[in-house]
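Here is one chain, start to finish.
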Amino acid sequence: MTQKKNGKLFDEWPETYDRWFTTPTGALVKHYESELILDLLKPGHGEVILDAGCGTGIFTSDILAAGSKVCGLDLSLPMLLRANEKAGCYPFRAVVGDILTLPFPGEVFDKTVSITTLEFVAEARAAVDELFRVTRRGGCIVVATLNSLSPWATRRKEEARKGHRLFEKAFFRSPGEMLSLAPIRGIAKTAIHFQKDDDPRIASEIESKGRDKGLNTGAFVAVRWQKP
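Its structure:
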C-alpha cells in the first residue's frame, strides 16, 4: 500500500480513533503513552517541534500544553482538521504531507516526534532519515510505534487475519529493530504492560510493575536519538 492510499484509509477513522481513547482502557493507554513520550521528548517552551503523523492530535495537545510550537503533519486531511480544531488558540500549524518526503528544508525543527505512524510505513529507515534531516543539531528525534514483542501485537495480528482493515496493513517492530533504524546510539522504553481485557482498576499496578522491571514487552515502544 502506498503512503497516499494509507492517507485515504485513515480518512474514515477520526471519530472511531478518538472515541477509543475515551473508554476506561483507552484513557489509561493514552495516559501512559503520553507520559512516556513527554519524558523522552521533553518539549520546552518556545521550541518548534514537528509531529509527523499527528493524526487527530491526541498526543499533539500535550506537546502544545508544554509551551512548544507544533507543526502537525499527516496524510489524512480529516485527521488534520480534527487536530487543528483541538489545538484551539495554541500555536499549531497543520500540513498535509508524507513522512517519507517531508516538505521542509533541513534542520528547521528543534525536535521531531512521530507517534504510532511508523507501523504503517514499510520504509521505516527512510522515514527516520527524514526526521533526522529536518531536526537541528543537538535536537532529539522520538519515534513510537507498536511493539512486536507485546501480547497486544499477537492479538492485533490475529485481528488482521480476520480482516481488520488497519492491522492487516501494520508493521510490528521490536525495540531492537527500532533502535537499528538510525546510525547512532539511542534509547528505547516501552509502556502499556497491562492487557486490553485487564480490569482498569488494577491496570495501574500492572503498569508500575512493568515499568519498574524495565520490561521490553510493553505494547508501545518509544525510541529517542540525539542528533550530533
